[in-house]
Design goal:
The chain is of the alpha/beta class and about 240 residues long. Helix content is about 50%, strand content about 15%. The two termini are about 15 Å apart. The model has no long low-confidence stretch (mean pLDDT about 90). Its main location: cytoplasm.
Amino acid sequence: MGHGELRGVVALDGPSGTGKSSVARRLASTLGARYLDTGAMYRAITLAVLRAGVDLADPAEVTRVARAATLVQGTDPERSTTHLDGADVGVEIRGPEVTLAVSPVSAVAEVRALLVAEQRRVIATALDDAGGIVVEGRDIGTVVAPDAALKVYVTADAEARAARRAKQDAASGRASTLDATLADVQRRDAYDSTRAVSPLRAADDAVVLDTTSLDLAGVLAALLALVDEHGLLAQPSGRVHG
């Protein structure tokens, strides 16, 4: 049975390793919607900061670099691209150096304000052009798109998330061990959930989806059911049903 097209915003939040990036792309593709990876945007700004050689603990310098950077985040779920100052940095932003530095950079209030404004612009454009968008990150339902029609907080236990991350790293040719990946997952969790600006948390009206025992197909099926339940599917005639 075919699905209709998404109408509105689906906000997917949660810590790393829950599978939200993979399922967000798949959900957007299935429903003919756009897709926004906000984490990639923070990673790109982090790469710019690292290239500039500024002190990560100096928010003024980090903000200066962020303001000077030209960041373009693609919204095609079939080919999500990240361009920094005209160059495709999609592979480089997934490296270990950026992974270690992204939390302190993304905790800078001015950086978040800059990127949230850009994310809202991208969302508005996608709604005008395509009618629907799936946005994933850590503060989508709470800050970026608090009026999203559907908010889902995707979670899983730390060990399962570390195993997924290690598998992704291996598939991409990045060297890692399960112990090191678990330590990094736990470090990111602590940092992101305790930062002063836009801490990682579920929105009050979010649906919590535990993916510990689910594969990608299972998570996608659960999300498709939620989209349908919230009446966000438009049939080919353009009629939204609920």
